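Data availability (excerpt). The following record was deposited with the supplementary files.
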Amino acid sequence: MAKHEANARFYVFSPAGEPVKLTLKPGQELHHTCGGPTDEGWHREWNKWSFDGRYVTSEWLSDGVDCDGRLEQFGTSICALAELHAGYVDEALCVTYPAWRDTEAGQRDHAAEAMGY
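Predicted structure:
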């Protein structure tokens, strides 16, 4: 008899600032990208969520150019299946987010690098 594997169901913030519920089957990945021109340049965001049957991994990138130059920020977080409803609670929307643990985070400030910082 095959063992039933649970799906990962959890909320994430949308670019519009509203919660979106995602469901991942074991072995599944979801990707989301958005962005475009701004008053001072451009901006884009990229997200990938994957589920290995035990942990959900969230990888993200925020990239853009404004009057100060180009700035990239990125990171990776994980959350155990049992902690997908154990993080920040938005009482006004009755939503609980995952208890993410950061495993990697960083940024590149291209203008600062060009100036030798």
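Summary of structural features: The chain has a mean pLDDT of 92.
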